[in-house]
Amino acid sequence: MSTYEVVLSLHILAAVFGFGVAGVAHSTMFRLRAARDMGQVRGHLAVLDKVGPFFGIAALLLIVLGAWLIQLSPSEEKFHWKDGWVLTALISLVIVEAIGGAVIGRRVKSIIGKLEGVPDGPVSADIRALLADRPVWMASHATTAVIASVVFVMVGKPSGVGAVVTVLIGAVVGIASALPFAKPVTAAA
Q1: Which letter, b or e, does each residue of 138-162 get, where b requires 16 or more Cβ atoms within 10 Å of its Cβ?
Q2: Virtual CA dihedral for 95, 100, 106, 111, nearest 10 degrees?
């Protein structure tokens, strides 16, 4: 096995790790939506709050290993920083991480703060409305879909325009997939 193949495998594993973290976050969001009492709400919010930094670890690994892959790329298919698909993937990852911290991370912390002092017991309609935070749902679905579209970009290595269009389609699909969940449920599922 060549160094390139080892680094490529590690790069893929970093992406798998990131999708695993996203899976935990998304399943926790759905559990939060279905919570029946405030104890469950607090527990699920604690998980969401703790999982956030793992996205940064995955992103750092993807960037470092991706940069190494560019340096190691075989001469017959040499990759360059100026390749449209490389730039699109890198910029998309940076934007996704910024949205994750600025929108998802901050809003989850804000929701946790708003729930301080709320007594244990059933989840009220007001709390359910708070948990259906539209920006959190839209940002979480859009960022995951964008990263999934980056996988398509990495495999297909399209032109810069093709790569950007692929990522934009991913963002639209992600936002659309969040819409049904960005409204409060009337009762626990």
Answers
A1: bbbbbbbbbbbbbebbbeeebeeeb
A2: 140
- Domain borders along the chain are 3-181
pLDDT tens sequence across 3-21? 999 999 999 999 999 999 9
138 SS3 class:
helix
- Find how far residue 2's CA is from the centre of its chain: 31
For the four alpha carbons of 26, 29, 31 and 34, in that order, the dihedral sign comes to negative
- Tell the residue number behind the tokens 């948990």, with chain if given: 131
Phi, psi of 74 (to 5 degrees): -60, 145
3-state secondary structure (DSSP) of residue 122: strand
SS3 49: helix
Model pLDDT for residues 90-104, shown as the tens digit of each residue: 999 999 999 999 999
Quick one: which of 79, 55, 75, 73 has its CA closest to 7? 73
Rounded to two decimals, the pTM is: 0.89
